[in-house]
């Protein structure tokens, strides 16, 4: 009879331990859920319309919001805590009149078995922006060595002001296998 009680308490303690670990893990995610950023295109920057949708950076002069860099850093922080990160929501607000961009991304725990470690973005502005942006997607998937599992997070169209079409894709990396 004593052995049954001991087993009952042992498995109860193990169950409680897993519950506490799961609760603690969720608390960590709460602290890491939202990342925000903004940037404003200075008056002296050439081709301001192009700079307006430089969510990461431009090759020509390095100007941009470094959005992917900031999100990637936060996703790696989550991954290093033993959680498979994912990005579920990206919100973009563009003020075309003042050439200002505000963005927000929600990082959560992955539910599909992948550990997403970053985003890539391509897009275009002005006339024929849709076709030019779509034409960049396949090339974008070669930008990050070892990346795979590309999935669209946001197909953004600026609702007013300067027309912008921008695609945001999340990806996983070979060097960071899921936990």
Main features:
179 residues; 2 domains; three-stranded antiparallel β-sheet; 33% helix
Outline the secondary-structure elements.
Blueprint: H1 2-31, E1 34-40, H2 48-52, H3 67-80, E2 85-95, E3 100-109, E4 116-125, H4 129-134, H5 137-140, E5 147-157, E6 164-173
Antiparallel strand pairs: 1-3, 2-3, 4-6, 5-6
Short description:
With 179 residues, this protein is α+β, with helices and mostly antiparallel strands.
Describe, in plain words, how this protein is organized in 3D.
The chain is α+β, with helices and mostly antiparallel strands and 179 residues long. The protein folds into two domains: 1-31; 34-173, no CATH class. It has five helices and six strands; from the N terminus they run H-E-H-H-E-E-E-H-H-E-E. It has a three-stranded antiparallel sheet, covered by helices on one side. A three-stranded antiparallel sheet has the order 4-6-5.
Number of helices: 5
Strand order of the largest sheet: 1-3-2
Order of helices and strands: HEHHEEEHHEE
List low-confidence stretches. Answer: none
Instruction: Tell me the overall shape.
Output: elongated
Mean pLDDT: 90
Give the CA-CA distance, first to last residue: 40 Å
Number of individual domains: 2
Q: Got a strand count?
A: 6
Structural class: alpha+beta
Strand content: 25-35%
Gyration radius, rounded = 21 Å
The percent range for helix content is 25-40%
Largest sheet: 3 strands, antiparallel
